[in-house]
Amino acid sequence: MSDSYPQSRSTVPHRKRERMSRDKDLVRRVFDESWTVDVAFTGGNGEPRVLPMFHVRVGDRLYLHWSSGSRLGLTSEDGIRVSVSATLLDGLVLAKSWTNHSMNYRCAIAHGTARPVLDDDEAWDAMKALVDRVEPGRSDRTRGPSAKEWAEVRIFRLDLEEVAVKRRVGGVGDESADADVEVETGIMPVETVVSPLE
Amino acid sequence: MSDSYPQSRSTVPHRKRERMSRDKDLVRRVFDESWTVDVAFTGGNGEPRVLPMFHVRVGDRLYLHWSSGSRLGLTSEDGIRVSVSATLLDGLVLAKSWTNHSMNYRCAIAHGTARPVLDDDEAWDAMKALVDRVEPGRSDRTRGPSAKEWAEVRIFRLDLEEVAVKRRVGGVGDESADADVEVETGIMPVETVVSPLE
User: Positions of the region Disordered (chains A, B) (predicted)?
Assistant: First the structure.
C-alpha cells in the first residue's frame, strides 16, 4: 500500500516542486486541523464561486455539510465538480528584503466531484462525525436529528484521490548581500486558538 | 455617499437573509483581519480551481500577490473572473441537539475580474502595502526589490463592488423542547493568534 495519493494532472507541481507533497499523513492532517474548507465550483451562470464549509475527514472521504436551502444544494444527484482547499497559516516570515517576506503555511487542495450522500446510514455517520469534531463523543451526549431536521441536512462527499499539500516550512531566506540591512528578522508564529466553553 | 456596497445578483441573499450584509466597514474589516484569501477561478481545462493568496486591501481595491511562475500568472492582461473569500472563524457553537451546532464566523466574498496591475507605481504601492501588513512601516526598514526581483512580482487587483459579508454572531439557538438534555452548551471562542518574532 502506498503512503501517498496518486499523482494526477492537477497535482503535478509546476514550480517550487519541493513545496508540494502527496504524503497521505500530511494531507489528512491539514484537513483535520483546519476548521473549515473553501469549496470552489462553477455557478449556474458559468462564473467561479467559492463558499466556506464545515467538513470532516473519515479515512479518504471528505464530508461537506451544507443546508438544503443553499445554492449548491439545488444541484443534481450527479454531483458537482469542485476544488476544495484547507489552509493553515503557521507563521509570518519577516526578511531583510521585500520579496523575501513570506508565510509558513500548509495548504491541502483536492479536486474531484462532490456528490450528495444518498445512503442514509452513511449520511448519519458523517453528521455524527461532524458533531464529534467539535468535541469527541459529543454526538452521544446531544439529541440526534428529528425526521424534520434530518430532511434539511445535506451531506456531500468528496473522495480524496486527486489531492496534494503545498507548504512552506523553515526560516528566513535572506540573501547574503543583504547582511548589512539592519532590521529584525525571523518568524512570527501563527496559531488558531480555541478557548474553553463560555 | 452610501455606507454599503451596491446590491447585485451575486450578493442577493437567498436564505438566512439576516446573516448577509453589504456594510462597507464590516466588509473591509473582514478582508483586513484575514491573513489570506481563497481565490476561485476556472482553470484552462474548464474545471473549478481554488488557491490561497496573500492580499491587502487599499480603499475599495483588493490586491492579490502571486508569483509570475504560477498558473494564474499565465493568463492574459484582460484579467480573470474570480470569486474571492476571506473567512474568519470566531467561535464554535455547542448546542443540545446535533443540528443546532453551528459556528460563529464572518465571511466576505467578492466577485469580479482580477486584472494584473500594469501601472508600475500602483504595483509598487501595493507591494509596499503588502509588506506593511505584516508590520507597520516595515517596507521603509527593509530593502525594496531589485529590477530582477521586481520583474518576478505579479500583483492582481480586484475592485470591491460585488461583495458582501455573511456572518453568524451570538449565542446558542437551542429548542425549548431540548431543555432537559443534560449537556454543557455555549460558545468556544476561536482566535488567530500571531506571536512575537522568534
Answer: 1-23
Prediction ipTM score: 0.92
C-alpha–C-alpha distance, residues A103 and B65, integer Å = 12
Over the stretch B15-47, which tens digit does the pLDDT of each residue have? 566 689 999 999 999 999 999 999 999 988 899
List, in order of start, the domains of chain B with CATH numbers. Answer: 21-171 (2.30.110.10)
Strand segments, DSSP code E, in chain A are 20-21, 36-42, 48-58, 61-67, 80-94, 102-116, 153-159, 162-168, 186-194
Chain A nearest C-alpha distance from B49 (Å) = 5
Q: pLDDT by residue (tens digit) across B42-70?
A: 988 899 999 999 999 999 999 999 755 55
pLDDT at A105 over 50: yes
**B39 vs B17: CA distance, rounded Å:** 24
Transcribe B41-89 into DSSP letters.
EE-TTS-EEEEEEEEEEETTEEEEEEETTSGGGGS-TT-EEEEEEEEEE
Identify the pLDDT of residue A60: 97
Does the CB of A151 have a partner CB in chain B at under 8 Å? Answer: no
Q: Do A134 and B85 touch (CB under 8 A)?
A: no
Closest residue in A to B92 (Cα) is A134
Residue from A62, A85, A99, A193 whose CB has the most chain B CBs within 10 Å, to mutate: A99
What does the block give as the cell for B122?
Answer: 500602483
Residue B67 one-letter amino acid: S
